[in-house]
Amino acid sequence: MHSYRTTSKQKVFTYVGLSGLAVLLLAGFTASFLKSTGLFLGLGFISIGVIGYTFSSYSGLPVGIKNNGVWYQSLTSRGIIAWAVGVVLTAFYIVLYFYPEHLEGLIRLFDPLSEGLSGKKASQWFVYGVLYTLAIVLFGIKFIVKYKHSKYQKYRTYSVIFFQTIFAFLIPEIMARLNGDLPYYDLKSIWPLNYYLFDGYQLDGFLQNGSLGTALLIFGILSTLIITPILTYKFGKRWYCSWVCGCGGLAETAGDPFRQLSDKSLRAWKLERWMIHLILVWVFISTVGVVYSYLLQAPDSYLLGPKTFLISVGLLLCLVVGLILWKRRDWLAKDAQSSTIAISSVIVLLLGFFFFSESNRVLFIPSYQIRSAYGFFIGSIFSGVIGTGFYPILGNRVWCRFGCPMAAILGIQQKLFSKFKISTNGGQCISCGNCSAYCEMGIDVRAYAQREEPIKRASCVGCGICSAVCPRGVLRLES
Amino acid sequence: MNEKIVIIGNGVAGSTLALQLAEKGNASVTLISDESSYFFSRTALMYVYMGHLTKMQLEPFSRESWDQSPIQRIMARVLSITPEDNELSFQTSEGDVKQLPYDKLVIATGSKPAFYNWKGLEAKGVLGLYHLNDLEKLEKWAPNASACPEAIVIGGGLIGIELSEMLLSRQIKTTLIIRESFFWSSHLPESDAQFVEKQIRSHHINLIKEDELLEITADETGRVSSIQTKKGETISCNLVGITTGVRPNIEFLKTSGLELDKGILVDEYLKTSDPSIYAIGDCAQLRNPLSNRSAIEPVWYTGKLMGETLAQTFSGQPAPYKPGIWYNSAKFFDLEYQTYGKVSPKASQLKSEHHFHWETAEKAMTFAYDKKSEVFLGINTFGIRLNHRIVSGWIETGIPIQEVIDRLEEAHFDPEFSNRHYKQIKHAFIQNH
């Protein structure tokens, strides 16, 4: 029967998986050790470990919710093991982003695989990509077995595994093989999550690669402006955050054991709203600045002149904000309205600054510095080091909840014009708290359910776990 | 001056009332509990032992919100009330006895496990599952399968199932003994009961039917070692869980002069025999229950509804207690159960009520309808979630069973992509009808 103590089988497979990691590390440090055999041995042991652990945990059990002992196990209740895993993961991210030279041995180990795919030698990002994809696939399988009774859970996990392996991993590698100059482009990674999409070198890459490059650039712009709002209107932000996105994919699979660790306090909710929207402003300004300076270098070479660009961005922003404030004035709290006005005024002011100074400086700071600071603090430290490294301490959606500018945009769309909501079933709620506890976004779902109110929150990624763990069938995702 | 309202008991009935009164802000509210400082969800106690939730997560409202609310909370045990003086006396945890005057008093003291006079009840490792303390006892006597390899649960209601599921989560071998010939026969028709029994057995619970506890035997340390049943069996065990139902927790009112029966007798405005004293929740007994409904309904939903009703009365719009169409829900291990309206357990003995039962390996439904008029009366559903408002509406308006079967999909509330069985059900109904 279910256990909250690890069984001997589970232990064995945990050690097999860990030994896979150890093989990779050893082979990485002593480059001569095992060579490419080490790579396949390491990845093989990791795979056997995770899959074996999965089946020793769930096979033969009746279908249903498998949360026994979550708050008793060290790993899932911020115990010593959780801290240890957190420290190791964080250290890995710091080395990966800032000291990749220490990974040289490990990177060379991945050369055969990289050469087989793209014909190029492996980089630190290739290694990261392989491990990331493997994590989503393996822990995705674990998630599917754990929730085998729920088709919604299974389908969205198939989906994130598909988008990670095909779109994030294979297609860019193959594109690199076919056309070496095209920028590395994961089609599902949409601006502003993909904050470097409009960087100068990327734009060069797109524009110097004929119609394919131009088509990709146009697709990138349409993704943000047209495709995203339509899909969010129809399905809510879940279509992206828990069905397509790679960050969401890792959070839902490898991060699943940590979903209960999200902070449910009112204070955290307030912090979340400020942080995520200010980061959106930051990426917006830095992207506009980067594109503006790109256009300034050769003002007459593109269809879009630098000043026309600024004016159209400004007008579009005013139009969107104006529409929101007018059409949805009854939905927005006073403080939401005033901060929307304040923040958009600041943005327009900064745009004006660009315009009149004819330089790419924002209050004397060159825009490329704003952009690179964003890349450092948000792109690396927040989304990687904290976002994933702190899974076992802060929960699996810290980045998505407090940092991701894409989630911010989708959240605004979800709150203001989406058909998505979570319905509650009459008076059936017994206030048990499972929904709130297992909400990875820290939404106090119970607070709505016990008042028989539907849940329409900007942050909800539609993972559907609240509905799955509810012992009384109170919650239903709808769109 | 503000009216002084004192509420005894901070369960769902008492807390709902207190919070709604505080929101309206025209009375001074005092909430007394001897169990916990903060309202918690009693129905979810099981999830703490099973490790799904922490104790604090059982609390439906944050501690901060209670601390900021104008409700005065007292941790104390009420000893007695004196209606003539509009006063009660209570004892704090430090042992001080104090008096508290009130303008209006609300008794919401809930239930307590109904233990009969079995021999050996005082043995260590005998417990019920109701009070927050029971959780501590369980943690003490059944921390894991090596300290407690075998357990017996007496009584097969909803709490008996919950306790069995809890024990199983720690690999404790569990035997469930029920007096009846099928599970929860006071509420379920036989076909539904058999369906639930399959679920119970699939979780490797040893289910013994038509037997009863006779006495409990302890070892030399005073710890439970075995039980004897009425049929003469001796079963060794390390823990005995008694879940033979609950009864109103009203002993402290014996000398109060209030009219009592099994519970505190109340009228439709939830008023007791004393005009300034009210009773809500499990401890209240309606003098004139609605037809098809019990005088005492110890469930979460009715407690909450009584609290809401009384809050309205106290705010100057006297509201009679109108519980509407009966509903309840539970979970038998992994099997979700909802019930709406009236599905009589012994319909086969009734002339007027007819049942249509449908089941697959994982899911089942029983529809009850009037034999003559074919009007839909109620439904039990297992493993399929139905929309509360829609099904209640059908029962309220009294539509014919055929229409319910035809329109069943309108009440669909299962998660997206779930298998739909409405066509199969319709087909089975046509063949059966």
Brief write-up:
The complex is a heterodimer of chains A (479) and B (433). With 479 residues, chain A is mainly alpha-helical.
Which helices and strands appear, and what pairs or packs with what?
The complex is a heterodimer of chains A (479) and B (433).
Chain A: H1 8-29, H2 36-58, H3 80-98, H4 104-109, H5 111-117, H6 124-146, H7 151-178, H8 200-207, H9 210-235, H10 238-241, H11 246-253, H12 266-297, H13 306-327, H14 334-357, E1 361-362, E2 365-366, H15 367-386, H16 391-394, H17 398-403, H18 405-417, E3 421-424, H19 434-437, H20 445-449, H21 465-469, E4 475-478
Chain B: E1 3-8, H1 12-24, E2 27-33, H2 45-49, H3 63-68, E3 72-82, E4 87-92, E5 97-101, E6 104-107, E7 111-113, E8 126-127, H4 132-141, E9 150-154, H5 158-168, E10 173-177, H6 190-202, E11 206-208, E12 213-218, E13 224-229, E14 234-236, E15 239-242, E16 246-248, E17 264-266, E18 277-279, E19 284-286, H7 300-314, E20 327-332, E21 335-341, E22 353-359, E23 364-370, E24 376-382, H8 388-397, H9 401-407, H10 422-432
Parallel strand pairs in B: 1-2, 1-6, 2-3, 6-18, 8-15, 9-10, 9-15, 10-11, 17-19
Antiparallel strand pairs in B: 3-4, 4-5, 7-16, 12-13, 13-14, 20-21, 21-24, 22-23, 23-24
Helix pairs in contact in B: 1-7
Work out the number of β strands of chain B.
24
Strand order of the largest sheet of chain A: 1-2
CATH class of the largest domain in chain B: Alpha Beta
- How many discrete domains of chain A? 3
The poorly predicted ranges of chain B are none
Structural class of chain A: mainly alpha
CATH topology (fold) name of the largest domain in chain B:
FAD/NAD(P)-binding domain
Mean pLDDT of chain B: 95
Q: Count the helices of chain B. How many? A: 10
Taken from the alpha-carbon principal axes, the silhouette of chain B is globular
Low-pLDDT regions of chain A = none
The most extensive interface between chains reads: A-B, 47 and 48 residues
